[in-house]
Design goal:
Elements: E1 6-15, E2 22-32, H1 48-55, E3 63-68, E4 71-72, H2 78-87, H3 95-98, H4 105-115, H5 122-135, H6 151-159
Antiparallel strand pairs: 1-2, 1-3, 3-4
Helix pairs in contact: 4-5
């Protein structure tokens, strides 16, 4: 049996304290294979965002485990944790919530490259972004704030420069 890239095992998340506990996520289990894309779909308030944040390591579960390549995310440190953070991303449905129109396309796309130390200079980041854009046949205008392209597409473009190595 192949080890999933990412797995949630009986994950529960509660908020509040005492008598005012709200169970936002209740006993969620799922396994995601390498190269598989998962969309969480459901009614407003059903726990999609909380589940995504737990899966991405942005929020710890109250109970249960999140596994990345078979290892408990709660125990990952150093390079192993960095690899997990580069491999798991959330793409929000509402691009207005995830893209800041004050920043240029270059600033938005280069931020994760610098954050994860995948590039060392602006020139290297620009080359990496344009190379990835060519690979995926995407035309980019890096120095503009908004080039008329629908924001949902820009949200997807932002996830492209995330090679693990």
């Amino acid at each position: 049996m192949t080890v999933p890239l990412l797995a949630l095992e009986h994950v529960t998340r509660t908020f509040g304290s005492g008598r005012r506990l709200v169970r936002a996520v209740d006993d969620v289990s799922l396994a995601i294979a390498p190269a598989e894309i998962v969309c969480l779909v459901g009614e407003s308030g059903c726990g999609k965002t909380t589940t995504g944040k737990i899966a991405a390591g942005l929020l710890p579960p109250t109970s249960g485990r999140v596994l990345f390549e078979g290892e408990d995310v709660a125990t990952l440190r150093g390079a192993a944790y960095d690899r997990f953070r580069r491999a798991v991303q959330i793409v929000h449905q509402d691009p207005y919530a995830s893209l800041n129109p004050v920043h240029t396309v270059y600033e938005i796309l280069s931020a994760p490259l610098f954050h994860h130390r995948l590039v060392g200079s602006r020139a290297e980041a620009r080359e990496r972004i344009t190379s990835d854009a060519r690979t995926y046949r995407i035309e980019l205008q890096l120095d503009v704030r908004e080039d008329g392209r629908p924001r949902w597409r820009r949200t997807w473009e932002r996830t492209i420069p995330r090679r693990l190595q």
